[in-house]
Amino acid sequence: MKNQVGVWIDHKKAIIATLTGRIEHVRRTPSRVERRVGYYDEVVACIRDADSILIFGPGEAKIELRERLGAELLGARIAGIETVGEMTEHQVAAAVRQHFLKSERKLQKTIVAAIR
Predict the structure, then answer these.
(1) Which residues have CB under 8 Å from 14's CB, separation 6+?
(2) 4 near 19, Cβ under 8 Å?
(3) Measured CA distances, 27 to 4, 6, 18, 62, 102 (Å)
(4) Looking at residue 23, what is its pLDDT?
(5) Mean pLDDT of the chain
(6) Which of 5, 60, 70, 89 is the most buried (most CB within 10 A)?
(7) Distance CA 92, CA 88 (A)
(8) How does DSSP classify residue 33?
(9) Res 88: pLDDT
């Protein structure tokens, strides 16, 4: 079963929504601004097992996370990066579900077209 993860991130916090089949888990990770390196370590540790990763947020933190994932050899798992404003945990989970559902539908259409 695929492990799909979405991370809304800024320099104050990360909201991580993990979808595994029909099971959803949301976690909030606060930043310790003086230890930003440790903050990214904690976020990467939470998403290391993801098959697909969606990163979104308002500023530079999403780019810094992308670079960190690349350094950890996880960059190929990034499904997308989007700029969005502040979101609640429920909004993050809904956005992640919507993104990956849309991707799965597009893949199914491609497979059906290839079979015909």
Answers:
(1) 7, 8, 28, 29, 31, 39, 43, 46, 61
(2) yes
(3) 14, 11, 8, 17, 23
(4) 85
(5) 87
(6) 5
(7) 6
(8) G
(9) 93
Query: What are the structural domains of the chain?
Result: 3-115 (3.30.420.60)
**Do residues 16 and 47 lie in contact, with contact meaning Cβ atoms separated by under 8 Å?**
yes
pLDDT at position 109 is 61
**So what's the pLDDT on residue 72?**
94
Please compute, for residue 39, the number of CA atoms within 13 A of its CA located in the half-sphere on the CB side.
20
pLDDT attached to residue 55: 97
d(CA 9, CA 86): 9
3-class DSSP state for residue 111? helix
Half-sphere exposure at residue 13, Cβ-oriented, CA atoms within 13 angstroms: 11
Residues in the chain: 116
- Report how far apart, in Å, the C-alpha atoms of 20 and of each of 85, 91, 96 are: 25, 18, 12
